[in-house]
Design a protein that fits this description.
191 residues; alpha/beta; Rossmann fold; seven-stranded mixed sheet; binds S-adenosylmethionine
């Protein structure tokens, strides 16, 4: 397993450098549809880097991050509420959030189906889901997947269109944008 609880300072320092500008632009585009003061949950939020990027374009939003590693969460900015929790068991009421973010996190979840059920449960009707992850159908994506599996991580990486198909089964309509060996999914719960 990757000891995220002890790696907070590394992610705090290098996390922002790893995020391509085009991913930040896609994130801001996805957030642009939200109403003022909408609620946003960053699942597997780590040090809250996605919330920080989101804040640069929408500082009016209400940010919450969950992560099982408190050593990551403790680096989050003061405007991000934090909860120690996993994607498979979110400590929130049904219909709580307008948008959920997952940045470089989905492939770490132990049970993707349970995590998606929880995502749908806590999202409001027509809520949004923004995912940023690595494409396992590329050399770099495959290499990271192999390395993470060797480290004992679940390595639940997807080819983007397979993930799109899975999301459809949970009621999401989505658009994929490729960013080289990485991709983003901008999805919303269909009625
Ligand atoms: C590569 S880090 C990404 C953190 C942050 N989203 C970012 O972009 O820097 C992956 C994060 O997923 C978290 N994680 C691992 N298993 C998880 C689970 N089952 N539910 C939620 N988060 C999980 C880890 O603790 C870690 O903080």
């Amino acid at each position: 397993m990757i000891p995220f609880n002890h790696l907070g300072w590394i992610f705090k320092t290098f996390g922002p450098v790893i995020y391509p500008q085009s991913v930040r632009t896609s994130l801001c585009n996805a957030l642009s549809t939200l109403s003022p003061h909408a609620t946003v949950l960053d699942v597997g939020g780590g040090t809250g880097v996605m919330c920080e990027f989101a804040y640069t374009c929408r500082d009016d939003l209400d940010f919450t991050a969950v992560d099982p590693a408190e050593g990551m969460l403790k680096h989050a900015k003061a405007y991000v509420k934090t909860h120690k929790a996993s994607a498979e068991e979110l400590p929130f009421e049904d219909n709580s959030f307008d948008m959920i973010l997952m940045g470089e996190a989905l492939h770490h979840f132990n049970d993707i189906d349970l995590a998606l059920k929880e995502t749908v449960r806590v999202l409001k009707k027509e809520g949004g889901l923004f995912i940023y992850d690595f494409n396992v159908n590329t050399f770099k994506g495959k290499s990271i997947c192999t390395m993470e599996k060797l480290l004992g991580e679940p390595g639940n990486f997807f080819e983007p269109y397979d993930l799109q198909e899975k999301l459809e089964k949970y009621g999401f309509r989505s658009t994929i944008t490729k960013h080289g060996w990485r991709y983003t999914v901008d999805a919303s719960l269909a009625l």
